[in-house]
Amino acid sequence: MMGRINKIGIAILSVLLIALYISCSKKSNPTDDPAANGFDKTVMLTNYADNLIVPAYEQTQQKLALLQTAVNTFLATPSPATQAALKTVFKDSYLQVERISVLEFGPSRNNSFIGFINALPANTTKKVGEKTDLTVIEENIASGDWNLVQNSAIHQQGFPALDYLFFANDAVAKFADAGSINRKKYVQDVLTRIKSLLDQTLTAWKSTYRSQFIANTKSDSGSPISYMLNQFAYEMDMLKGPRIGWPFGTQSGGVQFPELCEAYYSSLSLDLAIENMNSLKNMFTGGNSGKGISDLLAALGNAALKDEILNQFNVVDAKLKAIPAPLSSALVNNKPVIEDANKEIQLLLRLIKTDAVSKLGVQISYVDNDGD
Predict the structure, then answer these.
(1) Nearest alpha carbon to residue 348 among 324, 323, 317, 322
(2) N or C terminus: fewer CB in 10 A for the chain?
(3) Mean local confidence (pLDDT), 57-85
(4) pTM of this prediction exceeds 0.70
(5) What is the pLDDT of the chain when averaged over all its residues?
(6) What CA–CA distance (Å, rounded) separates 85 from 87?
(7) What kind and span of H or E run contains 40?
(8) Angstrom distance (rounded) from CA 141 to CA 156
(9) What is residue 366's predicted lDDT score, i.e. its pLDDT?
């Protein structure tokens, strides 16, 4: 009888010890502590919301208003001169889109904001016999019938569509001919859709999501920290794949597709890639305010990794700037330079997607573009 009681007692004690161990493990996990090693994550998230994210969306609204004015001028009097003036404003707006690309979580993710305004690659290559998206755009314009809200139209709108419509070789002539009314309406509808999605995203941030974002200091799936780390890695995957790798032929046995370059028609591909990386670095550091993901990484005892990542950002920036513009020509004429840049991009991707993510207790939840 005593033996049985001892066995029961031992079993109960074992369960209690296991429960105590799990409880202590959870409490001692610094990635879930609101003040991780003395670093206040609520202050960090407030910095992101109030000093980086909301202002970035507000600046995008301002850029879009300027773009709309330039578009109206061009559509009223299509000419090489008004096209050149439009290109300057278009570039400024597109660079701003790169600055908010890393914010594809929360309200932006809910309405697929970045997906609809800058889906890459810009002109998807269909299966043999299928129409390309640019062909569909032209058919839509010819018929006067289109629906930009449906998911199947994701590659037929946003800045990639405007890039083609405004800056293809025959763009001025097409906007100046007698049958241009549908083309002009298509452009205005694309701009209206961009503005609508942007306004929805910013309104949601200001009304409800800001408080939710700041309040959740954990690192588990669905938390702001997890969202941001996943988006950092995703943006690096996009640089490695659709922005440079795919046009260069990394996924097609060396067969190049220069027409898949981001902003192919305006030749802004490299400018956009560099701005995207600068924006990603700014988000990683929290605007160099001492209140960013990079500082959290250091607070958790990973200062060397933080420095390595920041240095690698600088290396990638230099390698991208070494590629002669436009990227579509450099693909053929400057292969060693692009291969060198790709090598450094891969290293930065690993540092973020594997090392930083592991140290911060985050799991990668998206499926990458090429299965690496």
Answers:
(1) 317
(2) N
(3) 98
(4) yes
(5) 90
(6) 5
(7) strand 39-40
(8) 11
(9) 84
Give the burial class of 245: count Cβ atoms within 10 A of its Cβ; 0-12 exposed, 13-18 middle, 19 or more buried.
buried
**CA–CA distance, 39 with 28 (Å, rounded to integer):** 15
* CA dist., res. 16 & res. 1, Å (int): 23
Q: What's the token pair of residue 126?
A: 């269909």
CB 66 within 8 A of CB 92: yes
Which single residue is written with the structure tokens 């090489």? 80
Q: What is the DSSP string of 175-208?
A: HHSTT-HHHHHHHHHHHHHHHHHHHHHHHHIIII
Q: Using the structure block, give the residue that is written with the tokens 């209206």.
A: 192
**Read out DSSP for 122-160?**
SSPPPSTTSPPHHHHHHHHHHHT---SSSGGGGGGSHHH
Residue with the bigger pLDDT between 296 and 9: it is: 296
CA-based max dimension of the chain = 101
Of 296, 304, 303, 301, the residue nearest 218 (C-alpha)? 296
Per-residue pLDDT of 178-218, as tens digits, reads 889 999 999 999 999 999 999 999 999 999 999 999 999 99
d(CA 296, CA 144): 53
Q: What is the pLDDT of residues 319-368, one digit of tens each?
A: 999 999 999 999 999 999 999 999 999 999 999 999 999 999 999 988 76
Q: How far is CA 345 from the centre of its chain?
A: 15
Angstrom distance (rounded) from CA 58 to CA 79: 31
120: left (phi over 0), alpha (psi -120 to 50) or beta: beta
At residue 222, does pLDDT exceed 70?
yes
- Cα 355 to Cα 72, 352, 361: the distances in Å are 48, 6, 10
